[in-house]
Amino acid sequence: MKATHLFLLLSLMIPDVYGAPEDSDLFLVARDLSYGDVDQQKLDVYYRSGTARLPVVIYIHGGGWAFGDKKEVHYKPQNFDDQDVALISMNYRLRWDYETYDQLEDIVSVNQWVQDNAVTYGLDEKKIVLMGHAAGAHLMSLVGINESHMKAGGLQLSDISAVISIDTASYDIERLMIELGSFIERRQHRLFLVTNNNIGARLHR
Known about the structure:
The chain has helices at 6-10, 76-82, 100-121, 135-145, 147-152, 173-180, 183-195, 199-203, and strands at 28-34, 42-47, 54-60, 86-90, 123-133, 162-166. By secondary structure, the chain is an alpha/beta fold.
């Protein structure tokens, strides 16, 4: 993976809270666009109109694989727009009714959505960065390091230019459950492990 620009790293310091900005003088917002057939498979695009195609960051929210929402972007759209970068914030199928593999499929599907809709929203489909927080960072990293997920969706790992992980506690789930996490965190990760057993089997169908 290629190194990303400094502005991407600076965005890591911005907390995930509600209150995403509406259309500004600089960028437009297209909300609740579908990339799949399920209601949770929606995304928001923060983009410019009438400019050269911009690199795009696909942002995957956190929330223990079971909570969270795409509107948790705070000032990220403005910060990225200032650096001539578009932002997509995506929802994905949550753990209550779906499995981890479904969430990975959703990230791949949004990558395909960018390929299919790049012209409409002025996106550069050859410059896609995945960026995730907490559980979103875990899911994004699985997609970004294992070519099987992208290939299962008809894409290549090279279609992703870079990945950025925000809050990597979920990388070492066993240690988190034993040493670091609160009761709620340990419970979340135990449930995740229970529903995570069939990823490999589904990849090799």
